[in-house]
Every structure is written in C-alpha cells, then in structure tokens.
Design a protein that fits this description.
alpha/beta, 238 residues, 9 strands, 7 helices
C-alpha cells in the first residue's frame, strides 16, 4: 500500500493452478480487478467499481497499536452493499511493539476473517517506514522474526494465513529476501508499472495480487488479482 501518514495458503496456491516465474513478462491470463482504500479516500464509488468489473477491495483497518482507521466501517459496509469481496489490512510499525501484539490489535479492530465466502484473509502491510529508518531499526533476522510472530498469531486465531504486502526492494533490504513465508502467506506485490509486477521476492512463485497503480478511477490504488474469479473466491473462502 502506498503509505499515507497517520498511520491453508498452500492449497490456495494449488487451487490457482499456475505460477509466474520471477521477472517473467505478463502473459494473457484471467485476472480480476480490485482496489485498496483508507480514510484518505473519503468518497469511494463502490457500485461504480463493481459495475466496471472490480470484485474485491482491501481496506485499511489499523496501524501499530494506537490507530484505527476512522473510515473502516463506512468503507467495509459500502463494499459489502456493492457486492464486493472485502477484507482489512494492517500497516505494520515493527519498532513500536511485537508482531503478536499488533496482530491481536488488528484482529480486534476489523482484521478478522470469516468463512462467508466474501471476506479476504487480513493483509499485513510491511514496507518503508514513514517515520524513520527504512527497516525500523531491526536487523534482517529480527524483522523476519517480527513478521513470523504476526502471521503465526493471525493464523492461530483465524486458521488463515494473512496476505503480505510489500515491495521487492523493501523485502530484499529488510528481510534479506527471506523465503520463510512463500508457502503460507499470499504475496501482494507493489510495483507501479504497465510492464508487469517485475521481480518476485522471497521465493514466492508468483504474486497473488499486484498493486499496479496508485490511482484507481473509483477510489484508492489499483490491484490486480492473479487469476480468475474462482481463484479469488477460493482465496476468500479458504
């Protein structure tokens, strides 16, 4: 997610039935349009997005352990009414508290999952620090441990592995290009380009969602699900 200050997956992979090699050109295949939003998008045309072909939206819920996005409920209810598959995301602040603590805060304030077929597993937004050092003052090993604590806590409470949002550059710099999550957590990769998602970090065989632009006509950033609608529904239902 472009930061604005204030701030079992293996079977899913198999169900999608394809894998993109790193740095491969985008091939013609089924995709599904989606988008992501926070309170900075005060007016979102959910119905217009749905009518134009979008089928999912990821909504900011929390940041650290002190911030709840004030528009989360409005966005979530609007997305639901429009028929969109929806879920929440958490902007990580690894320097402020443990991964487990932040996962529990996220779960308590909109980040949960239910097997209703319309709720995406939560997403951990882990990227450049808007307040200081790029890697939040953590070593690569400490960062991997922090992420592990977050995703393991989320999984233990929901039975679902959260998605991980990042960039190739940040992941390589701050985790040492760790492959620890490649078979559990679906990858949401940010790269603003018309030429494709670029290099896939961390040993993931492909990106599950590609954030391809920081501008979407109906609000927020543009996201592309790497597969057809049945794959997206599988991601939501588990």
């Amino acid at each position: 997610m472009k930061f604005l200050p204030t701030i079992a997956a293996v079977s899913i992979y198999q169900a999608l039935a394809f894998a993109l090699p790193a740095s491969s050109p985008v091939e013609k295949r089924a995709t599904v349009q989606g988008f992501d939003i926070s309170h900075y998008q005060s007016s979102v045309n959910y119905r217009g997005a749905y009518n134009s072909g979008a089928r999912f939206v990821i909504i900011k819920a929390t940041e650290g352990t002190t911030y709840i996005d004030p528009s989360f409920s409005t966005h979530y209810n609007g997305a639901t009414s429009a028929g969109l598959i929806r879920g929440g995301y958490h902007f990580a602040l690894p320097a402020s508290s443990s991964g487990a603590t932040q996962a529990n805060y996220f779960l308590a304030h909109g980040g949960g999952w239910s097997g209703d077929g319309r709720t995406l597993p939560g997403m951990l937004d882990i990227e450049y620090n808007p307040y200081g050092a790029t890697c939040y003052g953590l070593s690569q090993t400490a960062m991997v441990n922090w992420i592990s604590a977050f995703v393991n806590t989320y999984h233990s409470k929901t039975t679902r592995w959260p998605m991980i949002y990042t960039t190739n550059d940040w992941w390589t710099t701050c985790t040492g290009n760790s492959a620890a999550f490649r078979t559990t957590c679906p990858l949401v990769l940010a790269r603003y380009s018309s030429a494709g998602p670029g290099t896939i970090p961390g040993g993931w065989p492909y990106q599950t969602i590609w954030q391809n632009s920081d501008s979407y006509a109906f609000g927020g950033d543009s996201d592309i699900f790497n597969g057809g609608l049945a794959g997206l529904q599988k991601l939501a239902s588990g």
